[in-house]
Design goal:
Layout lengths: L2 H28 L17 H21 L10 H25 L7 H35 L5 E6 L3 H11 L7 E7 L15 E3 L4 H8 L3 E4 L9 H7 L6 E4 L11 E6 L2 E6 L6 H21 L1 H14 L5 E7 L5 E7 L23 H9 L6 H6 L4 E3 L6 H10 L12 E3 L1 H5 L6 H16 L3 H17 L4
Parallel strand pairs: 1-2, 1-4, 2-3, 4-5, 10-11
Antiparallel strand pairs: 5-7, 6-7, 8-9
Helix pairs in contact: 1-2, 1-4, 2-3, 3-4, 12-14
Length: 472
């Protein structure tokens, strides 16, 4: 389906609604005038704040909707949840705009007047913005239920359980939006019952190619109870961030990730969410990353210059060390750090550092203890490759070794790596792959409990660790 066109519909609707609600609010509550309908586009006594509002208020509302996640998952929207979200967004936006107007002196009044004005703008904007958005959502829902729109869906499973799920979903009077394009056989047995209903597209080893070739948007894991031991291997391969994954109830204790129960008409399925944090928290986390990185790079600039001189005077080689690490969704990027080892320290191949590593320079020991070698990481944060808090990024060489022993490490690639992490604070640097795996449990717990609050706790622990110089 055309996600871009659908987003444009919502954005244009929100821009026009915000513009109209601003004009009506300004005439009625700022100028305190009675108006006729249709209202004048430009009131005769409008001040400069009116024209600034025409330009900035619609942009503000669209930015707020982006922040709150209104333009995500646009084809699977609940009208009831959308109403709740619209109420929260309208209340937040009305509070911000009316507070700005009162503080700027565009509207005068006491506290009671402020709240009356805010309430008026809230109701006005909610009514004008929600109705067209509701119309777009309702039209989309009708198109899905009638079968005119749908999601390319792949079934993983080939036996009786897969057949039952397929027949139940396709047997609904109203379409669920699932357009089945085929199935994957995970037990290798041929022939199998699903071949009577859908084409066999390949094995689990081919799943990435199958998803890309058929533009799969949804996967339903329908395996037999005797095959539950294969669920981890299946989920580890379904690591595409935009893929909706559903499975049969009863697997809650073995599915990795946050789950919520969805009902496809009469077919209850568990949905595995790739969004580990609420949308607004995820956006707030990104905003905090940018703010903290700018502050850190500016505030630590004199210290960074001193560190650079110390490194340059101590040993040959570049001041900044750069090499490839693996980031979110397996994308490689170049990480930047102050050099703490002698030049060409890994000429014989990748090698982890240890406490008494002879390759570590004199400044390097101090920088590692104080975690100051990671100051250039803030550049990676500003480039969008890292976050301030997240599991430390590793090299592909070591990721392959970790995955061979702990396949669930792949789940860490669902989020941006970080400058600091709970595993880094609680465990420290790892000297070998086994220690990396021991540290992994802390990062997995963080993955399952991600929130802005947890990030602040980790940042506080990191600061305490730096002051105690407990780095390795």
């Amino acid at each position: 389906m055309n996600y871009t066109a659908q987003r444009i519909k919502y954005i244009l609707s929100d821009l026009l609604s915000a513009l109209l609600s601003w004009i009506l609010y300004y005439i009625c509550h700022i100028l305190d005038e009675r108006i006729a309908f249709p209202p004048p586009l430009i009131p005769e006594s409008a001040g400069s704040e009116f024209y600034w509002g025409l330009a900035l208020v619609p942009v503000f509302w669209v930015a707020l909707y982006f922040f709150l996640g209104f333009y995500r998952d646009i084809f699977r929207r609940s009208r009831l949840k959308e109403l709740g979200g619209s109420i929260i967004a309208s209340a937040t936006g009305a509070l911000v705009i009316t507070a700005f107007l009162f503080s700027a002196g565009a509207a005068e009044g006491d506290t009671a007047g402020f709240f009356r004005s805010m309430g008026a703008y809230f109701y006005l904007h909610l009514l004008i913005s929600y109705l067209p958005r509701l119309a777009i959502t309702a039209a989309t829902t009708r198109a899905i239920r009638s079968g005119r729109m749908g999601f390319n869906t792949l079934i993983i499973g080939s036996d009786r359980k897969a057949v039952d799920i397929y027949r139940e979903i396709t047997g609904q009077i109203r379409s669920t939006g699932n357009r089945f394009i085929g199935f994957i056989n995970i037990n290798g047995k041929r022939p199998c019952p699903m071949e009577d209903y859908l084409p066999h597209l390949g094995s689990l080893e081919d799943i990435k190619e199958i998803i890309a070739a058929h533009r799969v948007e949804e996967v339903i894991v329908a395996i037999e109870p005797s095959e539950n031991g294969k669920i981890e291997r299946i989920i580890n391969r379904l690591d595409h961030p935009d893929l909706v994954i559903k499975a049969i109830p009863g697997m809650q204790d073995i599915l990795t990730g946050r789950v919520r129960i969805n009902t496809i008409i009469a077919t209850p399925l568990i949905q595995l969410s790739h969004h580990l944090m609420p949308v607004w928290q995820n956006n707030l986390k990104q905003l905090i990353d940018i703010v903290l990185s700018v502050i850190a790079l500016v505030a630590l600039l004199p210290l960074s210059v001193a560190i650079a001189l110390w490194i340059k005077l101590d040993s040959r080689g570049p001041v900044i060390y750069s090499h490839e690490r693996i980031g979110r969704n397996g994308r490689p990027f170049r990480i930047y750090k102050f050099r703490t080892m002698i030049d060409n320290a890994e000429k014989n191949g990748p090698e982890l550092s240890s406490e008494n590593d002879s390759r570590v320079t004199c400044p390097g020991r101090f920088l590692r203890k104080a975690r100051l070698d990671e100051i250039p990481n803030f550049i990676n944060v500003l480039r969008g490759e890292m976050s301030v808090v997240g599991p430390r990024p590793e090299r592909k060489f070591y990721i392959d070794k970790i995955v061979s022993k702990a396949p669930h490490y792949k789940h860490l690639l669902r989020i941006k790596p970080g400058i600091t992490s709970w595993g880094q604070v609680r465990y420290g640097y790892a000297e070998n792959v086994d220690q990396m795996i021991q540290r992994l449990k802390y990062d997995m717990i963080y993955l399952e409990n991600m929130s802005v609050f947890v990030d602040f706790q980790i940042l506080i622990l990191t600061v305490l660790t730096i002051f105690r110089r407990k780095g390795v």
